[in-house]
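Hey all, sorry for the wall of text incoming. These are the two entities for the joint prediction.
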Amino acid sequence: MESATEPYSLTIVSLYPRDMNIYGDRGNLLSLVRRARAHGITAKVVEVNVGDPLPEEVDIIIGGGGQDSGQERVARDLAGRGAALRELADDGLPMLLICGLYQLFGHRFVTGSSSEISGIGVFDLETRAGSERIIGNVVVDSEEFGEIVGYENHSGNTVLGEGSAPLGTVLQGAGNNTMDGTEGARTRNAIGSYLHGSLLPKNPAISDFLIRVAMERKYGAFSPREIDDKTALRARASAKKRPR
Amino acid sequence: MRDFLSAVVGKAVRALARLRGGGSALPGLVVERLDPGFMARALSTLPLGVVAVSGTNGKTTTTKMVVEMLEAQGLKVFTNRTGSNFSRGVVAAIVGECSMTGRLHADVAVLELDEAHAMYFIERVKPRFTLLLNVLRDQLDRFGEIDTTAGYLQRIADATTDVVIVNREDRHIASIGERTRQRAEQTGSPKVREFGLVNDLLSTFPGDDDFYGGSSDAGLTAGERHDADVVLTALGKQTATFRIEGKVYETPLQLEGLYNTYNAAAALSTVRSVFEAAADTYTTPTTQQLLESLSQVRPAFGRGERLELDGEALELVLVKNPAGFKLGLASFDAEGVGVMIAINDQYADGRDMSWLWDVEFASLQEGGVAVVTGTRAWDMALRLEHDEVAFGVVEEDLSRALAVFRANTQGQPRRIYCTYTAMLGLRKRLGDLTNVEEI
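and here's what came out:
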């Protein structure tokens, strides 16, 4: 996979692509790899499914959402990696977790029947199943990334504790829950979010963040290239005009 | 008396709605409010009852196949032809065709049912036959999850009295068949029939799990399996080979596309079920006769429909979910063809664009895409950019896009991949330029 012409390379771990892929989560991986290439970096992708070992070398971790029925299997497997993943997060590894894995990277998910699925506690948050699904276009205002544009489709209500900051404030849509106007979570360089659409293609600022942090950790420096984002900018503009 | 009133009111509303142009489901809405029992009463008088067709992809074309095969054998068939598959659409169709006394003069009804709206329908009418095609990711913003959709289809199967016809190769549908079979062990009904694929073709028709590297059932593909009622054994360019009761038949088809051909197996099995149940009162056709009528069926509007523009073929391919888009791209040769993609995000299309990221567009790299249009044209363009597919003009407005597409692809056959509302919009505009069948 690695090309000799590029001096830089990053290993991206795609977490549970077999079970957690429901809302075009593949788009995030595709976009991140493409973005890295545009910055002159070779991206090597390692898929880690239930039972697979984490590779020794990992520079970025991303993961998506799944159907309720598949989540317990994933939760069990994830629990076994909890300590390793918490350590990586504490060490500042850049991560992006969407929807289902965002929830499981918190402390716990309380289901409709009040049983609990334990998470791994990378984020200080917990999620309770709500009675209604929260569905629709979302625009979030983030200090670090500017406006984040996406789409949400979840029945979980997520509430953050003090150990995680929200990713941003909702301008349109619901986000973490229907009460407090926050969306997503940040702990060190790990980002959790409910937004898909897919998230990264229309929000290259987040891809750039993940790549920059990974490069700085691995090579001590990152010199970004100028990238033409015209198509992404136009797609963001039309998405923001659409009804909920 | 009630039937008479409802029929008259419905017909009056229909006449008014026609005068104002459009509103095909409006009379259905009015009658349903006025007389909620109207639909059930009208359908209960049909000697062969109701055939329901549901599933994610291919409902409209498959319904059309079933209807036309039954009609070719001399049956009078009532159907919701406009693809208005909510129950108000069914009521509207009854109002259009019934007598002033609210009676439908037909032998059988064949109805396409939207998965979610079918719940309302089956509370009122029990289908005698139900055909379940597939469960694929579609409009998750409406249904939430695939498991929810599968649950809806299970309930349609549960409400069916005589025969449930299931797709053996779709994991969700096959388990619905299995559960129905177990449940029927005591009562003896409904019966379960299967249509399927020969092992060699399984990889050509990936199911939802296969698309996403999901936990695909290895057991499904392994070794020899018991024979289904109708098995698709081979397909060529507008031909198909079926195995029915151990005999192999090759037939030409007007329909194109892998999914249309497989759905022909579904339609054949359904029609066979109907005639088997009606053997006392109707003459059972031979398999040759059924295939003869199948070979005459043309695609439903927008489903691989062929129009002509500037002396060149123009194909409309409806794409509404990843599986449909993938099969659409795989079914039609891209070489030498001018391509436009039209992506809308109205309610009927689904508002979420995530699904575009589950489709691979590499097959369009060589010829590129001439025009991208629709409310989410830029999302589509962004998707193409990620797969290194060159695109020409991006124009959200359908009319302007169609004009540019026409000018930039002169002398070439053309193909438009479009979501549901984009397809309706484009057909309307194409109607001003060429011959388009009214729906």
